[in-house]
């Protein structure tokens, strides 16, 4: 019975959710291809630069919960910038997104209240809650690409993340492919 209620709640919320129209800059966009260990920076429709990356300690598969050491997959945006990160510089990724939240609700990893809070964060184009069972605090940051070593983030060499950090604004679209 609980599964049916959760399913109906997800269905109801999905049917009436309207994607936010972003006033955020779309001049740049980031595409991350996990299997290639590459981050592609596009300016408009032109590939501007390719960067080598490192991923989470468990690089294959989609992030599902806090502590799984996986890097998320899906459509996100840059939701924060931290110039004082312990990993040199950091661009916050808007994980979890609504698809992640719907799967988490369907699998009883998060509550309906958590789902609503994630939805509100995404709708407002700000950082979604970072402390649910789905995990959070996923960043593009520095400290090197020698091996997959993060807890789910995307790491670049410090000179590369500095270059990216200077170009990228909060609101920039990020797509993470397997």
List keywords for this structure.
26% strand; disordered N terminus; alpha+beta; L,D-transpeptidase catalytic domain-like
**CATH class annotation:** Mainly Beta
Give the helix tally: 4
Overall pLDDT: 89
Strand adjacency order, main sheet: 3-2-1-8-4-5-6-7
* Percent of residues in β-strands: 25-35%
Main sheet specs: 8 strands, mixed
Q: Quick one: how many beta strands?
A: 8
**Total domain count:** 1
Order of helices and strands: HEEEEEHHEEHE
Work out the helicity level.
25-40%
The CATH topology assignment is: L,D-transpeptidase catalytic domain-like
Helix-and-strand structural type: alpha+beta
Describe the overall structure.
α2 runs antiparallel to α3 (112-123). This protein is globular. It has an 8-stranded mixed sheet, covered by helices on one side. Mean pLDDT is 89; it is low at 3-26. It has one domain: L,D-transpeptidase catalytic domain-like. It has helices spanning 2-16, 98-106, 112-123, 158-167, and strands at 28-33, 38-43, 46-52, 74-85, 88-93, 139-141, 154-155, 173-177. By secondary structure, the protein is α+β, with helices and mostly antiparallel strands.
